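Example complex used in Figure S2.
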Amino acid sequence: MKTYDIVIVGGGPAGLAAAVAAKEAGNDSILILERDHELGGILNQCIHNGFGLHTFKEELTGPEYAYRFIKQVLDLGIEYKLNTMVMDIAADKTVTAMNREDGMFQIPAKAVILAMGCRERPRGALNIPGYRPAGIFSAGTAQRLVNIEGYMPGREVVILGSGDIGLIMARRMTLEGAKVKVVAELLPYSGGLKRNIVQCLDDYGIPLKLSHTVVDIEGKEHVTAVTIAEVGPDRKPIPGTEERYTCDTLLLSCGLIPENELSRSAGVQMSPITSGPVVNESLETNIPGVFACGNVLHVHDLVDYVSEEAKRAGQNAVKYINDGCKNAEASDVIELVATEGARYTVPSTINKSRMDDLLTVRFRVGDVYKNSFVSVYFDDERVMHNEKRILAPGEMEQIILQKKKLDEYPNLKKITVKIEKE
Amino acid sequence: MLYDVIVIGAGVTGSAVARELSRYEANVCVLEKCEDVCEGTSKANSAIVHAGFDAAEGSLMAKLNVRGNEMMTDLARDLDIPFKRNGSLVVCIHKEALDGLKDLYNRGVANGVKDLKILSREEALEMEPNLSENVEGALWAPTGGIICPFELNIAMAENANMNGVDFRFNTEVEDIKKGEDGNWHLRTNNGEYVTRYVVNAAGVYADKIHNMVSADKMHIIERRGDYCLLDKTVGGHVTHTIFPQPTKLGKGVLVSPTIHGNLIVGPTAVDLENKEGNNTTAAGIDDLIAKAGDHVRNLPIRNVITSFAGLRAHEEHHEFIIKEVDDAPCFIDCAGIESPGLTSSPAIGEMVGNMMKDMMNLKPKANWISTRKGVKKTDGLSIEERNELIKQNPAYGTIICRCESITEGEILDAIHRPLGARSLDGVKRRTRAGMGRCQAGFCSPRTMEILHRELGIPYEKITKSGGNSNIVLERTKGEVSGS
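Predicted assembly (905 residues):
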């Protein structure tokens, strides 16, 4: 088997953007490994519009957005293998993969870019009581059945969880003639983007019931009804608040989980908050030369940010190889800490010597905050204080750090991001 | 056609009986109301091969448990069933209950269980470091084991089928009458079946079937048990099967590795009068989680990947009823087959086989096939072995279920074999595709495509597990044909 400098695991938006950036940064030895039968990843089933406003300043559908990058990959002559499953990534960056034509093969890579994306939390992980009939789908599986396979799962739908895919599928099922009766969300706020609640629920008169969950699923062979109930502050159902909906389909949109089984077995250090790798300013994991980007790193809500992040991973992989695959100097490591409302930051450390002039730090908040401030402290000194009308867990936030600003603090050890009332 | 024997039910009991009967020159047919084998109690249980110390001394349950346990090593080898004697520990967490442990030891010895030993707190913790802080002692049974219940059931049925036993699925027995010809006439939703002998292996429905022919009425209580199955990342939390001390409701909530490397926690015990009541309840799952922590520390219950419930076919005397019905000659009950039914099933088969050989004067088949190969597994194969397989059949190069690393080759094998899979659950139980942490979210559409292609089943007719459990309803608007 041919060897490559850079192996990219996953040919979705993250993998594609990383590949293009790596090629443009001057590396000609790149291979993308994709498990599906085409490039583009989950975007291929996201046939709605709203993609690309940041990147291309226009509204594209998912497949259109993906194609912008696929075309660059093709034009640049970047190699890829489809229908190929990566079976293992070793700590020494040997990638083991398999497909029908090549069989099982190993590629010793100089750099590996993790771009495997995420998966949906299934019913089982939610402990929803009731029967286990047909008619229960994660929203993304239903999206694939409807948009790719061309089949309707059912006609009367209840949705649990207000993640973006669930909201999008509420609209999609409605447009296909199904009746979406209710969207129930366990938390007192939605997990999805505000624009999706307006455009996918409000515009179609679909009720969103916050602080509600499914307490029973009826139907021995196929779903016949679902009962939801209001939950208290402890998130336990409140007796007497049950409402029963007859339906044939229950969709679940209850969170996304970065798909890091390969990362873990390679020995990549993981964050318990994001379920993604812990990375430094170069999006490099604790294993030198192993980079991560996109939803495998942390779950994004806009693909534009995925592309931007992946571009940096691709560029940094090339830089790592051009520098002779050496470890960065660890003498000037600055720690990034999320606290008081901020749940995590990506990255979580900065090697100042390798930092670009501007560094985007992304994070999410753990609750809804109104008229608050995103504050950044350099050690104990507050250096940023940005007022925000609203902050919500469903919307990713960012701050931009300037290298020249950091240079003003030569002994800086810790940068803290927090949410403050004033 | 006149059958010599009709077995009602293709669970683990019916399939074990069918396999034993397949040794002889006889026309045997198994009638199953569901679309596949292993659809009732056999599919939703603890997946444990019990040592045999629990059942009452001198009971048939004790005898068949110990015999079934003994038989399992050879059977697993012959029929290619994943099985491991990981050993079990009954853990005592109250000093005053240590006598109970001794009683259990004595009962086990009387039942013929080998190598039992009472362990001190220190010995128990050394063997199983994640036991509760409160452990006072434990009963160690090295013969206890873990098995794949699906594979045990499927393997025995497949082997019976290879040896000429008919299986009729989606065939529910509605009534049984003794005909003037002296034979049993079974009315089903698929027409009438006539047979000289009937074996009732209908699980929770065994009372209903029994009561069709006997004035001596039987009553099976459905005793529901909720379970949680945990991710493989925490499958090593304990390495032995950990039981609490038994109570009158059963063996209590166990924590055990499964043969496939998950961790299983359960069951609860709630008595019902509902033969289809295998729904989980919030109260049941809460109860389970509360109890499971008593004997094992830091139980990683947050790593649950699925929860499910099974129904034990509990007969009020808590004893297996395996005999010819007094007022219905040539009708044999295998009823009240609750735990340790899975363990006992090969012994039940053997007992019923021997009984019927004598009753019917059956002659052994000359060409009986004693072994069966399971679906060829690829997990754990070396690169060279994989490539050899892929060269022979490229389908082994395509992963369909990423969580469990199941290839298309394995799914094709599961479909194209005796009593092959016809539904998503059928594929799942034969290959584990869809049994991993994403619970089939990724592989369902792909498995549907394979079922459609291989069996010519239209998409709308592909089911999760037969009946009305179709996955999709109809084409989307854009696909209306003829326009």
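The longest strand of chain A covers residues 381-391. The radius of gyration of chain A is 22 Å.
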